[in-house]
Amino acid sequence: MTSGCAGACSLPAAVAASDTIRLSQVQGRYVNVSRTTRLAFEVSPGQVAARPRPRGWVDRPSENSLLPYIVTYDPIAELLQRSNPPRAASSCSASPCGG
What we know:
It is a single chain. By secondary structure, the chain is α+β, with helices and mostly antiparallel strands. It has one domain (2-54, 66-94). The protein is 38% helix and 12% strand. The protein has helices spanning 33-43, 46-49, 67-79, 85-94; strands at 2-3, 6-7, 21-24, 29-32. The strands form 2 sheets. Strands 1-2 form a two-stranded antiparallel ribbon. Strands 3-4 form a two-stranded antiparallel sheet. Strand 3 and strand 4 form a beta hairpin. Helix 1 (33-43) packs across helix 3 (67-79) and helix 3 packs antiparallel against helix 4 (85-94). It is globular, with a radius of gyration of 14 Å. 17% of the residues are buried.
């Protein structure tokens, strides 16, 4: 099970789907939806990470630092489609890789 991009270091014997923990068919992993949504929109918004950099990135490998946002926003867009369509739609536009 993951929360955003961070995998848990210690897992319970089995992860079971619940109101907050749901299986993402897109990524094939369980996601804590409420925690990941908070992480994506309140703690570390992708739009901040994707801000324009007039002098470019510090180095070429740093350009890939936006990829974990896909891991965060993709399941939110998928898992909130029925329960919160506006938030699901905003997941697509909030991702630094989408738009």
